[in-house]
Design goal:
Number of helices: 4
Distance between the termini: 36 Å
Number of strands: 0
Structural class: mainly alpha
Largest sheet: none
Number of domains: 1
Strand content: under 5%
């Protein structure tokens, strides 16, 4: 039996931080550039924030980085879904938000993959590969 190591503390902290940073990014974009830029920032930020936080969660060549990275995106998506359910009960989420949730998981997965690639380098970190 293969033991899978999930760093739950880091995963939850990374997922929540990714979602809070996304909020911090998109609302100033809306105020400065309008609704179209806001919607684009939601999509871009939904992939970028979990990617960056997954790099943090998986730093140092932690095992099972891809899984842990995907979970960062999953936590970010689950947090928003919970928040939306509480604040708008009975309403369905727009398709754009549903796509953003998929991008969160893919962004986290990509961050975990990037961190795992750094693990394979000499010295065991992404920085030493550069």
């Amino acid at each position: 039996m293969i033991a899978v190591r999930i760093y739950w503390g880091r995963v939850v902290a990374g997922g929540l931080a990714a979602e809070f940073l996304l909020f911090a990014l998109v609302f100033p974009v809306r105020a400065a550039f309008g609704e179209t830029a806001f919607l684009a920032a939601i999509l871009v930020g939904s992939a970028a924030m979990p990617f960056l936080l997954a790099l943090w969660v998986c730093r140092g060549g932690r095992p099972h980085a891809v899984l842990n990275g995907a979970l960062v995106g999953g936590v970010a998506a689950a947090f928003y879904i919970l928040l939306f359910t509480i604040t708008a009960p009975g309403q369905s989420q727009p398709l754009l938000y549903q796509a953003a949730h998929v991008l969160k998981v893919l962004g986290g997965l990509s961050g975990g993959f990037a961190a795992s690639r750094g693990r394979a380098s000499p010295g065991g970190s992404a920085a030493s590969a550069v």
